[in-house]
Design goal:
With about 250 residues, the chain is mainly alpha-helical. The protein contains nine helices and no strands. It folds into two domains: about 100 residues, no CATH class; about 100 residues. Helix 3 runs antiparallel to helix 4, helix 4 crosses helix 5 and helix 6 runs antiparallel to helix 9. It starts with about 40 loop residues before the first helix and ends in a 5-residue tail after the last helix.
Amino acid sequence: MTDTTHTRPPGSGSRQGEFGEEGSAELPSLAPWEAPASPAGPEEDLGQVLALVQDARMAASDADRTQMAGVLNQLLDALAAGGGSREVADLLEQLLESGQLAGLEDSGGRACRAAATEALTRLGFPYALEVRPEDLAFLRGQDGASKDVPWRPKAAGALMAVGIAAQGLTHPPSLELDGPGLPLVLLWGLSLLSLVPALLGPERSASQRAGLLGLLVLSLLQLYLGVFGGYYGALSGGAGLLAWLLLMLPRR
């Protein structure tokens, strides 16, 4: 019987489904970092944060925990940048109230609790009003202990109060509707209102920046009126400007 075995010519390649050295079919890479990523929605982002918190708490080493905390802080910042929503606020409040973020901080010393608190304040109204006082104190304490000058807010507030008192004692304002004193008193009140968020607002927050801007504008306006308008606001305006400069000093 004749041998009917046929041999394919060299270089003809493999048949479909066969794997050889030449013309072999390539399997798709299953490496997680090469997998096609689909756009993550809000639910996926929140789930990723929760999963990362659990992984960080169960990390085998301090180095792994620190690395995961850094990634977690980046995710928390991204959630805050995405705009306010009830789901995001509820997640941040859950993490803060449960104490799951305790002891987690990145390589730069930034605590995840501070990052979550700052993210909640950056969500804006009404979610920023839901920040617990103890979490806000922790955020301000961490920022102030390592980066800020502790006497600076107190000095700025005292300087502003002394300037207004000195202006009122040297040139008592008249509260008549058609007199120059009433606008000056209104400017003093607005300056004090602007000083509150400038002193108490979280670092780099929108409320703090708005307070600093308001304090600057009102102080310059008082200086202008005191020099050119006859309103006797040079002392209070100068004190407000010095307080603004004191709050704007670079961190150490």
